[in-house]
Design a protein that fits this description.
The chain has one domain: Methylamine Dehydrogenase, Chain H (7 Propeller). By secondary structure, it is mainly beta. The chain is built from one helix and 31 strands. The chain starts with 33 loop residues before the first strand and ends with a strand.
């Protein structure tokens, strides 16, 4: 999962940057606009990537939503009901009624029925048509249940089976806190009824659905006491299938296992094997390895050993914005200079 809120972060998911009509080097330089093979789609930054059940990769980019089915790249700019600019993140949800794509943007939370084409049905939720806290949506996260968590510049809203949950966490987190320390990343537990939210300066807080359809506050993970969190400035969050929680910060990464907030914390830094301490994207692969995207490349942790990759190894850029693994085990990496995939110990830049 990436930092789903920055063009430079995590729910969960991202990756991609599109290449154009001109010839480019195999390993583009940082910040260079690239094109996806000969598709003619030119983008610079990719904030997130998700993979649907058909193994189609979906990317939020600075020019809109881009997809790749393994053969063809497509810019989805023909459906005017979809947001095209300032996209924050994408979230794939498999509903009983069919799959949906959720899109976070400053205009609200947009949900579109899949497949996405110029006729796809889409609706954008905002305070104008829903009891949302704010229109400026920074990220959306979902698990296996029906709750869609919507992080905004003023707090967290949630929708469950067409019913909006009532925020009831002011005793823990005030609107002013969100304004002063913006949300940077979000991820749910596997079920989806509990949400972890990273911030710019006050660590990680958790909210959950209570028994009366409200959003209640819970514990705060911060840089104090026995919690081994390298920094309170959180850039990315990834929750592994076994429930292990990973938090990327500006000064290293933290691992937390179990249900006791104060126990079982471990921090990792460059001295341990990270290529850089600024960890802005985290994801897991099919083998159980954890991938960390930083400003200086990627580090992969097996649980006991580390290996790092940079442009010298084939990355399009060392500034890693998003990471995700597709259904075949291919790792997709989004940077500020193009898309890279990793398969069979080989990097491919598109």
């Amino acid at each position: 999962m990436k930092n789903i809120f920055r063009s430079g972060n995590s729910l969960t998911a991202a990756i991609l940057i599109v290449m154009g009509l001109i010839s480019i080097p195999e390993n583009p330089v940082n910040g260079q606009i690239s094109t996806l093979n000969s598709s003619g789609i030119s983008v610079k930054n990719v904030n997130s990537v998700i993979v649907d059940d058909d193994n189609i990769k979906w990317f939020s980019t600075d020019v809109g939503i881009v997809s790749f089915d393994g053969n063809k790249w497509k810019l989805h700019d023909d459906n005017k009901s979809l947001p095209q600019q300032n996209l924050k993140s994408l979230t794939y949800v498999l509903n009983p009624d069919g799959p949906e794509l959720w899109i976070a943007s400053p205009n609200g939370a947009t949900v579109a029925r899949m497949p996405i084409d110029d006729q796809a049905e889409a609706i954008t939720y905002s305070p104008e048509n829903a009891p949302m806290i704010s229109q400026d949506v920074l990220g959306i996260a979902a698990g296996l249940d029906s709750i869609r968590w919507i992080g905004t510049d003023k707090g967290v809203s949630a929708l469950s089976n067409d019913k909006w949950l009532t925020p009831d966490y002011d005793g823990y987190y005030t609107e002013g806190m969100f304004m002063n320390y913006p949300i940077t990343s979000m991820a749910t537990n596997l079920k989806g009824d509990s949400l972890y939210v990273g911030t710019e300066g006050v660590g990680v807080f958790r909210v959950y659905r209570d028994d009366v359809d409200g959003i209640s506050g819970a514990s705060i993970y911060a840089q104090w006491g026995p919690i081994d969190l390298p920094s309170d400035y959180i850039l990315s969050i990834y929750i592994a299938p076994d429930g292990t929680k990973w938090f990327g910060t500006e000064e290293g990464v933290a691992r937390h296992s179990g249900n006791n907030t104060l126990d079982n914390w471990t921090a990792y830094y460059t001295d341990d094997g990270l290529v850089d301490n600024f960890v802005q994207a985290i994801s897991g692969d099919k083998k159980g390895n954890i991938w960390f995207g930083t400003l200086a490349g990627i580090s992969v942790f097996s649980g006991s050993t580390w290996i790092s990759y940079t442009t010298d190894n084939g990355l399009a850029s060392n500034n890693i914005l998003s990471i995700a693994t597709d259904n075949n085990g291919v790792v997709w990496i989004g940077t500020d200079a193009g898309i890279t995939s990793y398969e069979n110990e080989k990097f491919i830049n598109y």
